[in-house]
Each structure stands twice: as C-alpha cells, then as structure tokens.
Amino acid sequence: MIHEAEILGQRCLAPGVYRLELFAPAVAEQARPGQFLMVRTSISLDPFLRRPLSINSVDRRRGAVTLLYRVLGRGTRLLAERRLGRRLNVVGPLGRGFTVPVSGTVVLVAGGLGIAPLFFLAKVCCRQGNEVLLFYGARCSRELVLRRELEAMGVRLSLATEDGSAGEQGTVVELVRRKGLPPGVVCAAGPPPMLRALAAFLQDMGREAEFSLEERMGCGVGACRGCVVKVRTAEGFAYQRVCADGPVFRAATVVWE
C-alpha cells in the first residue's frame, strides 16, 4: 500500500491549481473512482502529516496516476515545487469510492476542485457507454479546469461561475435548481456548503445521490479518527470516518450540522 512513485509531469492549470502525474503501476491497477492517496509532500518528515489527494485519473496501460490539487499551505506549496523525475512516497489507493453504474445516465455535480474525483468517474462511465451530464461550477472561468478533456470524452457540460465569466452566473447548486436534474444516478463532490445545499435540494426532489466529502485527515486509514462525520443509521446516529468509511457516502445519510 506504500509506494515510491516517480513524477512524470506537473502542470499549473489555474492560479494555485496543479495537475500531477505519477508513475505508480500498482496504484493505477487498483484505483477506483472516488478513492484517494495520502501523499508525503517533501523529502523529509517536515511537514509530518501527509496530504489526502483525490485520484483524478489513471492510465493502467502506462501505469500512470494523476492527482489534482490546490496550493493551500506549506505542504501543497512544497508539492508544487517537486520536479520531473523525483519520487513521492504515497499510500493508497484508500477509501470507499463511487458506485459505478453499469448502464444509463450519470449526472455529476462538481463545485470547484470537486471535479478531481468526478473526472475519474466520468472517464470510466464514458468508456463503458454511459451518458454523462456534468453540472460544473467555480468562482470564475479560469477555475473551470479540465473542460476540454471532459468535452473530448463526450461529457455534456452545464457551467456556472460566480462572476458570470463562463456559463450562467451563480453557484452550481443554483444552476441545478434552474435547469432541474434529469433522470439518472447522481454523484457530487465539492466544498461542504455546496454539498449541504445540494443535499437539501435532492431531499426535496426525493432523489438519491452519492457525495464525496472533504475533511481534514491525519492518517488516512481510520486509525486516528480525526475526520469523522455524523451519519444516520438504523439505530439512530453514528460517527463514521471519512477516510475509511468514505470519502463517498449516500447523501441522505449525512447529517449536515
């Protein structure tokens, strides 16, 4: 589960947003949409904690794994400085991913870097013949990364930006409310406020969905219990670990506090 992955390439897609490609054949073979890696961002133990990064895509033939991330602090800043040919210590693939439908329409809702795990899911679904619709929102057009790749795969895009620079002005949840959700499996990823608002809309519509949740993680394997989320169970309520029991959960089970 621990791998030394060689950096094949790294590209800045938008201010502070990077796409990192690694040579990690074992990870590429095992990874499923919605899973993530715990990445050591420097060559030393400083910073001590690894960073959880969603698997954005895999190429099993080449043994390549792609990660998408935003520079938010010292760890990701160090990661953005790593260069071609260097090695990264990674753990994974980890977590419970999306349920990939075998047929039919798949409706994806991405807010910001929520596109990271949903791109992988869209790629798998398109390859197996699903119709894939994506509602995609961000603050501005520059942050709607990977649009060309998604369109080339055959994904039907509906866009929203908060400043109106691409698509309709507003949030992605407002876009979903205006356009309505077509029939199909619904999967979403994005910041917690967006998921909370989308969950309320889906509840009103009586629609099921799977959400990939974002939480700060310590170990990534469930030992530290630092990333728990409150969920509904048959017995009442419980706290489950986003890293090990998720990060993908049924939207209706999550208690949005």
Question: Which structural class fits the helix and strand makeup?
Answer: alpha/beta
Separation of termini? 34 Å
Query: Total number of helical segments?
Result: 6
Instruction: Count the domains.
Output: 3
Rounded average pLDDT: 92
Q: Quickly name the level 1 CATH class of the largest domain.
A: Alpha Beta
Oligomerization status of the protein chains: single chain
Could you tell me the radius of gyration in angstroms? 18 Å
CATH topology of the largest domain: Rossmann fold
Strand content: 35-45%
What summary fits the major beta sheet?
A: 7 strands, mixed
Query: What is the CATH architecture descriptor of the largest domain?
Result: 3-Layer(aba) Sandwich
| Fraction in helix | 10-25%
The counted number of beta strands is 15
What would a concise description of this structure say?
This protein is of the alpha/beta class and 257 residues long. Helices cover 21% and strands 37% of the residues.
